[in-house]
Write a structure and sequence with these properties.
heterodimer; A: about 400 residues; alpha/beta; nine-stranded mixed β-sheet; two-stranded antiparallel sheet; about 35% helix; B: about 100 residues; alpha+beta; 6 strands
């Protein structure tokens, strides 16, 4: 007999274990930290058909995918969601629905249960109705709580996902109390990552180090109090960590995301990297996209790494961090992630923190994610605080919180 | 259900898989896997052998006897291994003691 605890953990062995389907970019909410592209409206007509998604599901299982996430946008806006869940369950996936709760009636929950859905991840933005509703740009708070109770009443395992930023980071204890009342199994405090819409609003959203430390202490106390009743994750904010996140466990290592138009990506943000081709499953097989496409091969292994990373004794641990963040902040995706204190560009992170917390800084309203703002941001040149300020001045829909 | 503080697994007890987890054979990994929200664990053969028998019906003593039959030679070592595995599984929340 082997020793106790010698349970093997998966390293992927070259298989895309995690398949994420962004069924649509459409969404009833307008979260100003949305991870969808800022120009998400560009190919709104190009969503894959039911038959095309089913092909992705089949080919994904052939490649060894085990975990499957249905996300968006809001995946419930696809009326073939139940059909796709049933197909995925029959193929042997562990099926996860990642949702805002908007559109999740008891009738649909029962249909999803019958289709074999295993788990639901619901987002909640704060413990206060007024704040949640202002942040997401819709009256959603009461509905989210109602749906959360319905999910547990039907016996689904449930993850409550709380995106964490300046406006809600002080509510850890109140959110914990709500989660306990609902009876969630996993509570995930996910410090938001600064790409796309979150990058537009970074100066307003980035919490301070003191706020983070207070939140982490509250999470630790709750873990000790709750034991196995609830698993609490606290996704680290890489801006304050000094070391980069092991993003996606490495580029093209175990994660495969399919965008609404069928484009295959190593992560949900990868399309922001300029100079890479992003072919769709309409053009190629999933096996080719995963195994052969130059984009997926680009940052595998360590050949591509900068000298900073290639000579680093932690490169097997964090893979040089996040390619998207390296591109977004330094203009070159092969650079060391600036979140790493060993990066020659780390000053960009410290400057961003200083900028977001500069004494006397003029507070800007949050730029909400919607179609008009997407067009205005595209006209203003995409991302960043400057574009956000231009857009804010143009009189767009914003959240005052 | 927080039973980590309780006594270690005992011969007359029965254990069952936590319903949060999906346990099954996965051909592409040539092994048993545990799937759960945001997680995958690939199990080695003995871990799979033991979890497969955490069905809420068998007692720990029966489970040990079956494993001793499957891995003949050193009964004491097999028994010790099963108890250790069960303790680890329970600490990880994969299995629960049946009332």
């Amino acid at each position: 007999m082997p020793k106790d605890g010698s349970v093997v953990r998966l390293d992927g062995q070259g298989k895309p274990l995690w398949l994420v389907l962004e069924l649509t970019y459409r969404c009833p909410l307008k979260c100003p930290w949305c991870s969808n592209p800022v120009d998400y409206t560009r190919d709104a007509e190009a969503e894959l058909s039911t038959a095309e998604w089913k092909r992705v599901l089949r080919e994904g299982r052939e490649l060894g995918a085990l975990q499957l996430g249905f996300t968006g946008g809001e995946p419930l806006l696809r009326d073939d969601l139940e059909e796709l869940v049933a197909e995925a369950s029959a193929l042997g996936y562990y099926t996860n629905l990642i949702t805002s709760a908007v559109g999740l009636s008891e009738e649909r929950l029962l249909a999803l249960k019958a289709a074999g859905l295993k788990q639901i991840q619901l987002s909640l933005q704060s413990s206060e109705r007024a704040l949640t509703d202002a942040l997401v740009g819709a009256r959603a708070h009461e509905l989210k709580l109602k749906v959360a109770h319905m999910i547990k009443a039907l016996g689904f395992p449930m993850v409550l996902n709380v995106p964490v930023f300046r406006h809600n980071i002080g509510q850890v204890e109140e959110i914990l109390a709500l989660a306990e009342d609902i009876g969630v199994d996993y509570l995930e405090f996910a410090n938001i990552q600064y790409y796309n819409w979150a990058m537009v609003n970074r100066d307003e959203l980035l919490p301070s180090l003191e706020q983070l430390q207070t939140a982490e202490r509250a999470v630790q106390a709750a873990r000790e109090r709750l034991g196995q009743r609830m698993t609490i994750y606290f996704v680290i904010p890489d801006y304050y960590e000094g070391r980069p996140k092991a993003c996606m466990n490495g580029w093209g290592a175990i994660h495969l995301t399919i965008a609404p138009d069928g484009v295959a990506m190593p992560c949900q943000e990868a399309r922001i990297i300029e100079g890479l081709d992003f072919p769709s499953i309409r053009d190629q097989s999933l096996a080719w996209l995963w195994n052969e496409s130059p984009t997926f091969r680009k940052f595998r292994g360590d050949e591509w790494m900068s000298p900073t990373c290639r000579s680093c004794d932690e490169k097997e641990k964090d893979f040089g961090g996040c390619r998207c963040q390296a591109f977004l902040l330094t203009g070159d995706a092969a650079n060391t992630d600036p979140a790493c204190s060993r990066s020659p560009h780390h000053h960009l992170i410290t400057a961003a923190i200083a900028c977001a917390h500069a004494p006397g800084r003029r507070v800007q309203p949050l730029v909400l994610r919607n179609e008009r703002n997407a067009r205005l941001l595209a006209a203003a040149g995409g991302c960043g605080a400057a574009a956000a300020a231009d857009v804010a001045l143009a009189g767009v829909e914003v959240a005052h919180v | 259900m927080n039973d980590t503080a309780l006594s270690p697994p005992a011969a007359g007890e029965r254990y069952a898989l936590n319903p949060m987890y999906l346990f099954r054979w996965e051909p592409t990994q040539d092994s048993h896997v545990l799937l759960y929200p945001e997680g995958i664990v690939k199990l080695n053969q003995t871990a799979g052998d033991i979890l497969e028998r955490c069905d809420g019906q068998r007692t720990v003593a029966e489970l040990v006897a079956e494993l001793q039959q499957r891995y003949p030679g050193d009964d004491a070592r097999v028994a010790e291994g099963v108890y250790k595995f069960l303790e680890v599984f329970r600490a990880k929340g994969w299995i629960r003691r049946q009332a």
